[in-house]
Write a structure and sequence with these properties.
The protein is mainly alpha-helical. The chain folds into two domains: 52 residues, Arc Repressor Mutant, subunit A (Orthogonal Bundle), CATH 1.10.10.60; 151 residues, Tetracycline Repressor, domain 2, CATH 1.10.357. It has eleven helices and no strands. Helix 8 packs across helix 9. The chain is globular, with a radius of gyration of 19 Å. It starts with 5 loop residues before the first helix and ends with a helix. The mean pLDDT is 94.
Length: 210
């Protein structure tokens, strides 16, 4: 790791993650290399290795930042002075994820390999951001669904969070995939991120809030 002030290290890591994010808008994970990242930063490839040992570590840092961004949305919802019914709560959470397309895209990737090829301290930092999302989501349910038991809250969490892994590939479908579905004569109704998220949450919440 580069020996410098904490501010310099944070700044340079941020520039590298920003470059990865920029590339990820038009390229796939498999096509992005550390060399590609270096081409859109002020750092050479050997310099990047001072901050991230693998491509997976850069993506993990981007992933962590996406959870941090979603956590800001969840905190705002938690701190609201209003108490929402199941329909409004499902709507607001769905809207929060609709703004986090990149988080959902990262979730749809092979996260096992990403985590396996990252150092433990970076993985732990990522898990803290993920854990905060779990805790905020739990607190939101406790606040707005006061008639639910602790077990019912846990059941919703551990259904919905795994569902999040599949939202992006169902909502963001390429023309090539659509053409293949038509050729295979698969009758499939395409839905948006908002629709998938809302429909899942409203069923979970209404079931437990009866």
């Amino acid at each position: 790791m580069f020996k410098g002030t904490p501010e310099i290290i944070v700044q340079r890591r941020e520039e590298i993650v920003n470059a990865c994010e920029q590339l990820y808008q038009t390229m796939s994970f498999k096509d992005i290399t550390i060399k590609e990242v270096s081409n859109v930063t002020s750092f050479s490839r050997p310099t990047i290795y001072n901050y991230f040992h693998t491509k997976e570590e850069i993506f993990l840092a981007l992933f962590e930042r996406e959870y941090d961004r979603w956590n800001e949305n969840l905190e705002s919802l938690l701190n609201s002075k209003q108490i929402f019914d199941s329909e409004k709560l499902a709507e607001l959470i769905a809207k929060s994820l609709e703004r986090r397309t990149q988080l959902l895209r990262l979730l749809s990737m092979n996260n096992f390999d990403m985590e396996e090829n990252s150092r433990e301290e970076l993985l732990a930092s990522f898990k803290r951001a993920y854990g905060k999302s779990l805790n905020l989501f739990r607190e939101i349910l406790v606040k707005h669904c006061s008639n639910m038991s602790e077990e019912e809250v846990e059941q919703i969490m551990y259904v919905f969070f795994p569902v999040m892994f599949g939202i992006y590939p169902y909502a963001e479908v390429t023309e090539k995939q659509k053409e293949a579905m038509e050729e295979a004569e698969v009758d499939f109704k395409y839905q948006s991120i908002y629709e998938i998220t809302y429909n899942c949450l409203i069923r979970l919440l209404k079931k437990e809030m009866k």
